[in-house]
Amino acid sequence: MGKILVIAEKPSVARDIAKVLKAGQKGDGCLVGEQYVVSWAVGHLVTLAEPEDYDEKYKKWNFSTLPILPDEMKLKAIKQTRDQLKILHKWMNSAEIDSLICATDSGREGELIFRYIYDITKCKKPFARLWISSMTEEAIKEGFATLKNGREYDLLYSSAKCRSEADWLVGMNATRAYTLRYGALLSIGRVQTPTLALIVNKQKEIDAFVAEDYFEVQADFGGYTGMWIDKEEHTRIEKEETAKAIAAKVSGKQATIIKVEKEEKKMPPPLLYDLTELQRDCNKKFGFSAKKTLDIAQNLYEKRKMITYPRTDSRYLSDDMKGKVHHTLRRLNELAEYTPYTQPLSGKISFTKRIIDNSKVTDHHAIIPTDGKLRLDSLTEEEKKVFSLVAARFLAVFYPYYRYETTKVYAEAEQENFLSKGTVILEEGWQAVEKALVPASVSKKKKKDEEEQKLPALTEGERRKIEKAVVQKKKTKAPTPYTESSLLSAMENAGRFVEDEALKEQMKDSGLGTPATRAAIIERLLTVGYIVRKGKTLVPTEKGRKLIEVVPIEMSSPQTTGKWEKGLSSIAKGNMTEEKFMASIRRYVQFLIQDAASGRRADVVFPEEQIRGKRRKNNAFGKCPVCGRDILENTKSFYCAGWKQGCKFSLWKDSLTPYGLTLDGGMVKLLLKNGKTERMPVSLPQTGEKGTAVLILNQEKGSQIEIMDFTRHVAETEKI
Description:
This protein is an alpha+beta fold. Helix content is 35%, strand content 19%. A seven-stranded mixed sheet has the order 2-3-4-1-7-8-9. A seven-stranded antiparallel sheet has the order 15-12-13-14-11-10-16. Helix 6 runs antiparallel to helix 20, helix 9 packs across helix 10 and helix 13 runs antiparallel to helix 14.
């Protein structure tokens, strides 16, 4: 009887599996035992072929060769890992091997890695599927005892294959088409472009925002305060004189308590973690990027074996896991810092629908600690932080509701109404667990005006003197830019940006990307220069903003990508065919090529970029309006190449700072070509007023840049 070849996704995983299977003899790129040979990929070993692999004509980027739509997509070995692929090829086709076991990550991408290897090596041998959610020895043993027929995952592979081919067709064609059309290297992707659009659109809202002054009146009742309210309980007063009149009217006067409302409220424990929620919390509490959180979680899963599979989109456990939950609780009870919070649960836990729900567990269950040996002393500080979140959440879901009482006190003085609010915590419940076990947040401090006050015992009809009433001047706040945490939420819930109600309902279960890919998408946008980090926020660059201007709404809308993600999910469930999905992708690619060729936004000019490691052949931004030579760039200005010959033309980069702008290459190109730019947001240096204007190059004043046709933003309150 021959041996069985086990193929894992990474060498570290292969070593763990080989240990369980007693395959300890080291071979070339493998581990060998009596019954098993355990080998590995190194992530992806196989990828889709490049355009030039189909035809040499595609080597040169040219509109005449677009769209590139191969009849059948080809595979090719990734050059850097070709040696490991050769090792797998040898074993997969060896007479020693009777069958295979796919032990790559249990998900769509893991399935694709194995199947691409299986296809390119032309292997025909039967294979089984190892599907596990934990890398503990017990979980691996259990997985091998309950292997699945590999063909049960054919639909998952179809979904993964369609995802891969759709990304290739859209990305390869759109990137070439828009790069050729606009003369700048523009990376375009099925998921990354609508994600960028979310950030750009948010920035537009921020840029268009005009702060408005408003006023509130706060009354001091001696020991507590209250805010003036109108009939709808709004506190905002538009005019300062109105606010001052109210304050003067009630100061020193007696107020009557006209109503006291008390209401007990309760908040259930949050759901267990999926990857996106874990990334959000790590960003909010510790400032970790989505990618950093994923990397740490993957280490805790693979190397430390202390949490279950992290790349999950489920926040529930399945019914058959109740025994493991009890075992995991016992493991946490062995850790001194967790004992005070595991002891109250001893023999008393109840499994609600918020914890156990088979219908909401797909490929993997929620992230929880494993039921193996938990060694906190082996973890780095960052690993401890992530593990603390997972462990605290696992315990918190079994704790009582957080209960609190809200009190509203309404008072009247001189026919003016005031409202005081207070909160009393009745039972901390699950919140006590997370507060105790999770390290302090990087932004834990709460502003004083956000804290709810403690109110004295008050009764209806009681009289209280208003010691004084003060007018508080406030400003409306601009929308907040995206952080990684809020962007992950927006990506996950992309359906809320869709106006069509029927489609919004359909997109409830689909977003931009998957939990496993969202971190990489954000990092990609940073790498290609479409966004930058400013502190914890993500802000679009000029290049990123202009890309969203030139691509059609179908490319930048979450609606399109949401439909595709739903289609891929339907393929995995057997509700849609590969052929139907890919036909729609091919039609979409042809539409994108036509849009790029149309030159719909010929007025948009992208900023000049220095190619890494190479010198630009011609880095001129246009011709000097004084002498006709090239305009070049240095760190401080755009200047004439004829400066040695005495030409004094220059445009200083900080010359537009008073208007809230920085002069860049795109603006200079337009000024030199057309004498003016497109309309852009500016602020007036004298008054700070925000609006839009066109920049012009006034050659009569020595080629000075001036603003023309300033249009002030009109606040909503001024619109009639």
